[in-house]
Amino acid sequence: MRKLLALCLFLAIVVLPAAAQRRTLAPDSTVTTKHQVTIKGQRVPYAATTGTQPVWDEDGKVIAGLFYTYYERSDVKDRASRPLVISFNGGPGSASVWMHIAYTGPRLLNIDEEGYPVQPYGYRENPESILDIADIVFVNPVNTGYSRMADGVDKDKLKETFFGVNADVKYLAEWLNTFVTRKGRWASPKYLIGESYGTTRVSGLALELQNAQWMYLNGVVLVSPTDLGIDRSGPVEAALRLPYYAATAWYHQQLPADLQQKDLADVLPEVEAFTLNELIPAMSKGGFIEEAQKKQVAATMARYAGISEESVLQHNLDVPLNFFWKELLRQQGYTVGRLDSRYKGIDRQAAGVRPDFNAELTAWLHAFTPAINMYLRDELKYKTDVKYNMFGPVHPWNSDNDHTGENLRQAMAQNPYLHVMIQSGYYDGACDYFNAKYSMWQLDPSGRLKDRLNWKGYRSGHMMYLRKEDLVKGNEDLREFIRASLPKKGQPAMY
């Protein structure tokens, strides 16, 4: 379980100069600007409020300022019925930049239709943004974006306040209470959306907001979810990777001809059925599996994964992710990306058991970093010398007692209004789509909540919205989810 969570942490450790971290930012500040965007052919006017809001300790002392960007449609008369979407990215240690300027926000960074960087750097209108039906706030936890601990506090002592599964949830829930109060949004239907580690965050927040802040949600969206503290160790953890391997091999045309000629949607159910019905039972036998069965299973795995049967057997059926990323296109001289296996990299040498670098993350930072720095300063008029942390220092991170999947289940059980949608990219190798399905299946063992749980798949990777077709589909799925989870007028929250 911990191994999978570690793989899902959407983060690169960046060592920042000490001087950059000493640059200070007022913990309570706002800048508001007026804009318009055309969404689905409709002109949508809105206000963008960019700034910081304090985090206080139990004695009322300011200990940090969280940077946020809040988009509010300005031609809405009934704010009480207007949904509010609260957006977090992951890491832990990642800024909210990714979904902000590539998915749901009103501006979209310059990339090509498959998500690759293009020059000149910059941004344009996002015609798919959900701002037509919901207001959105993008929140940056401590040390991400422009968020920082306050001057004069003992930063080492405060690490345990901010940097851990449960600490993170606790202080962010308190912060959201203040935000909703300041912005007058208590009457609004509320939604949390998190990506990668952000799914751990919002799953924990769903219950914490109910139990500690008395704030009830209508929906939680999990984009490329982590394991949410749901156990899948041993043979299950190893076996669940195979459908992702098959999707990646299909994309790179490494499957046998009879499979390759099929559509991905026809290949994957076959692989999923083999994984659940044959591979997990076979791997559960460990070293006592009969040799003939082991060879037969290895041959089928190789057929679906696009690698040799010999490689599968050498790993005793447990093919590591790093090895797969290195092995699949080894003969062509390429590696495949971790977070999005459509991306290819070039290593120093073909030999080895893991890629030299994450090809996809390098490409994304190439495109996103200039765009967000330009956008915040030039269009939203938020000017500061503080460095925008794409990935900030948040370690050591305390991952103990991660029960966020159970927290989400309990929040759903307590709140009949609460619905959950999962969005996954088939080519995501860090938080893969089949593990996301498994989490959904295991979230509620009773099966009583399954009518409020649904999963959506996309033909891209971790940030599935980078591909234009999936940007359109993903946002439309969000619209449908929000509309479907709004109760009819007068409909009570009851079983």
Walk me through the structure.
38% of the residues lie in helices and 17% in strands. It is of the alpha/beta class and 495 residues long. Helix 5 crosses helix 6 and helix 6 crosses helix 15. The two termini are 34 Å apart. Strands 1, 2, 3, 4, 7, 8, 9, 10, 13 and 14 form a 10-stranded mixed beta sheet that branches. A two-stranded antiparallel sheet has the order 5-6. The protein folds into 2 domains: 2-230 and 365-485, 3-Layer(aba) Sandwich (Rossmann fold); 235-358, no CATH class. One of its GO terms (biological process) is proteolysis. Keywords: Carboxypeptidase, Glycoprotein, Hydrolase, Protease, Signal. One of its GO terms (molecular function) is serine-type carboxypeptidase activity. Residues 1-20 form the signal peptide.
Summarize the structure.
By secondary structure, the chain is of the alpha/beta class. The chain has helices at 2-8, 18-22, 97-102, 155-162, 165-182, 197-213, 235-239, 242-251, 257-260, 264-284, 291-305, 309-314, 321-327, 359-379, 404-414, 433-443, 468-485, and strands at residues 29-39, 42-56, 62-73, 84-88, 107-109, 123-125, 135-139, 148-149, 190-195, 219-223, 335-336, 344-345, 419-425, 453-458. Strands 1, 2, 3, 4, 7, 8, 9, 10, 13 and 14 form a 10-stranded mixed β-sheet that branches. The protein has a two-stranded antiparallel ribbon with strand order 5-6. Strands 11-12 form a two-stranded antiparallel ribbon.
